[in-house]
TrEMBL record:
Residues 166-176 are annotated as: LID. This is Adenylate kinase isoenzyme 6 homolog. Its EC number is 2.7.4.3. It catalyses: ATP + H2O = ADP + phosphate + H(+); AMP + ATP = 2 ADP. The keyword Nucleotide-binding applies. The lineage of its organism: Eukaryota, Fungi, Dikarya, Basidiomycota, Agaricomycotina. ATP binds at residues 69, 71-74, 167. It is found in: Cytoplasm; Nucleus.
Amino acid sequence: MATVAVAVATPQIRKSARSSRAMSFFLSHEIGLFSEIAANPAVLECTEIMEPDQKAKHFPVILITGTPGSGKTTHAQLLVQESPIPLQYVNVGDLVKDKGLHEGYDEEWQSYIVDEDKLLDELEPTASAGGLILDWHTCDIFPERWIDLVVVLRCDHTQLWERLEQRNYPINKIQENNESEIMQSVLDEARKSYDHGIIVELRSETTDDLENNVERIVRWILEWRSNHGFKRNPEETIGMNNKKSQES
Ligand SMILES: Nc1ncnc2c1ncn2[C@@H]1O[C@H](COP(=O)(O)OP(=O)(O)OP(=O)(O)O)[C@@H](O)[C@H]1O
């Protein structure tokens, strides 16, 4: 009997095909530095400044993920406001809906069945350019080379239940998300999909958590810029140039 080989481009296969080993080494190195810096701000002083690569993106891509209701959108919106660099915000769920990047609607789960190829093609130019926050409850489809930081938000499951109830989600959807949070499914998915060094798990239960998390991500952005040979804060550059031109 003839054997027919059927090639199925699973998200994992496609992802590894699109990723680059050199890039993942680079990213793990840079986030390794981030962890050290978080532990000891003095490390900032001895970070080596590299020459900027003209083709390299100037701004990072940050993926904010977590169980629905964990606070991704709330964090992303505050981060856009607080960020020292321009960041484009993409709510992936909204993009799928608005651009029809799906294969239909699942009534039972009240969600769209995402066409992953269409979604990746749509995001590719923006993600490659950098300066992007991706907000999605799942994270394993994005190529590793796109992503510089993965923020996984966590929330106490009873609090999460209340947040989802307030949205009038059907009970099966609340239960599924609740179990997913208890089983830390999104965190595990992130760990399977990205270098552990670029993943940060943050609690999102109070407004203090929100502010501290955003502050921490802003510090990381500045450090990312510095590690890639750019001015930590582009506004500082503008300020300095303006001052110089006024002085001259
Ligand atoms: N750290 C926090 N402290 C207090 N309330 C929060 C916090 N994070 C989120 N919330 C609240 O929880 C609710 C859900 O937040 P949000 O919409 O940001 O979640 P999400 O993860 O983006 O959800 P989805 O994946 O469904 O889009 C909102 O009412 C928001 O105000």
